[in-house]
Amino acid sequence: MSSLLTTALDGQHSSQHDATTTTHSHKRNLEPEGYPPLHAKLPEQQPTTATAQSPGVLVVARMAKSGIQYAVVDAFTAEPFKGNPAAVCLLQDAAKAADERWMQSVAAEFNLSETAFLLRDSSPAAAAAPRFQLRWFTPVAEVKLCGHATLASAHFLFTSVLAEHETLVEFATKSGILTAKKVAAPASAVASGEGKLFIELDFPMIDLVDCHPAELPSIPETLNGASVVSVHKSATAGDLIVELSSGKEVADIIPNIHEIEKCSGRGVIVTGPAPAGSGFDFFTRFFCPKFGVDEDPVCGSAHCVLAPYWGGKLGKQRLTAFQASPRSGILHLELEPASSRVRIQGEAVTVMTGTLLGSERNSSPCFEG
């Protein structure tokens, strides 16, 4: 972990399915002899320096008096270290929320597919439900829509920030107002043994458009000879939507990332029908090397275009998708054609919490080893 971050490691599995995190040490007692426990509050007027000589042990060095709270949340999974991890940073300062260079640097430091930045919106329009400004950054660029980091943000707010009775939160984004709410698990999730508490995102439906031949890379080379059924393009981000003959081909494919990088749009979404008896309707993978993400483990926004595509092919308004990346993830989808919306339901689990210290000029590294 980088020098900007200090983590608060929790050894208990919480009621929200929060995961246990560990250091590289095999010992339970990580505090150097003679120093207070790692979670002890440091005196505000006398920043404390604590060091440990063992490699891989968390240390505290010239702690800043205040910092920015963050969490790393695995989205679209109930299991730690699966799904898609996103960093969620809760800002207290509007100036920080406007500092794109700083946010991009933080996203590069986390080096996850997306980092989300939240700022509480106290305007009168936000009175009906808690509302937060929300922006998403990959390690190299800002994006206008991100499903898994929105789910991660909602999970973080519901479990760590908002009062327990709050069931709805709104996000003001570059794609308009998005909502997230607590819901009971869909029937398909209960049947498969998934958890009981889900978060539902209300996202815009995205149309498919035809591709011009000049926009297409050499698909056989790009997908290493996979059996291509059709190729379309999303109307917004320009992602190529490549349907293969089977979900197994989707899961097994080894793409040519160099060729994918030549595509005119954001990236390439590969999809195919799920195997019979799998409990899913279709499989998906998403490759986005232009934005510093060779493969996005689970992409919520990609399903804003895939849900209507497969809904039309299968004649269904409720679908269950499996993202067949190495980390994998499950998305429960519901189409609302009249309002051109897609409801995306999924679970999430927090695997790490901590404080960003790099926002302070005199902060120092807080990890060693």
TrEMBL record:
Q: Where is this region: Disordered?
A: 1-53
Which InterPro entries did the record assign? Phenazine_PhzF-like
Q: Does the keyword Isomerase apply?
A: yes
Record's compositionally biased regions (Polar residues) = 12-23
Q: Name one GO molecular function term.
A: isomerase activity
Q: Which UniProt keywords apply?
A: Isomerase
* Keyword Isomerase listed: yes
GO CC annotations?
A: cytoplasm
Q: Which family does it belong to?
A: Belongs to the PhzF family.
PANTHER family (alphabetical): PHENAZINE BIOSYNTHESIS PROTEIN, PHENAZINE BIOSYNTHESIS-LIKE DOMAIN-CONTAINING PROTEIN
Q: What is this protein called?
A: Uncharacterized protein
